[in-house]
Design brief:
The chain is of the alpha+beta class. It is built from 6 helices and 7 strands; from the N terminus they run E-E-E-H-E-E-E-H-H-H-E-H-H. The chain folds into 2 domains: about 50 residues, no CATH class; about 80 residues, no CATH class. Helix 3 crosses helix 4 and helix 4 packs antiparallel against helix 5.
Length: about 150
């Protein structure tokens, strides 16, 4: 015998196969067919007609990550080149230093922060101008990847 346990909202919270076909089911347990057993999953909703609707899969969008994890999104070559640029006494060097200093004072980075997005936009331009990336398309793709 195949059974599911439902919560108060008719959501499946457990699925089981019971060898004793004459067993008395406890509260919340409902018999299901072998076909249903092969398809039902935890989180499915039992409809009034007895069928099951699978749970909706929710994908969370991460907007805040650890600063070290953010910096690890850069390749070693990119990181070394930007550190080299940061040592320059130029507008590009000041821009990179400012971004790195701001990042170094935080434990986490909000990927949707307008200041970070503006800083990454500047980094993209600096990266193309200083040879971190060969062209604007590559820079745009890398910045997008780093921010995703």
């Amino acid at each position: 015998m195949f059974v599911v346990k439902l919560d108060a909202n008719n959501i499946v919270i457990s699925v089981a196969e019971i060898s004793n076909a004459t067993a008395t089911l406890g509260e919340g347990w409902v018999k299901i067919t072998p076909e249903e057993y092969s398809q039902v999953v935890i989180g499915a909703e039992r409809n009034p007609d007895g069928t099951f609707t699978p749970p909706v899969e929710v994908t969370a969008t991460v907007t805040e990550i650890d600063t070290v994890d953010f910096l690890d999104r850069f390749t070693e070559a990119e990181e070394l080149k930007f550190e080299e640029i940061a040592e320059e006494h130029s507008p590009a060097g000041r821009g990179v230093r400012l971004l790195l200093r701001r990042l170094s004072t935080r434990n986490t980075v909000r990927l949707d922060n307008p200041r970070l997005l503006a800083g990454m936009e500047k980094l993209k331009l600096i990266g193309v101008a200083k040879g971190v990336w060969p062209d604007a398309a590559t820079a745009t793709a890398r910045v997008s990847e780093i921010l995703s």
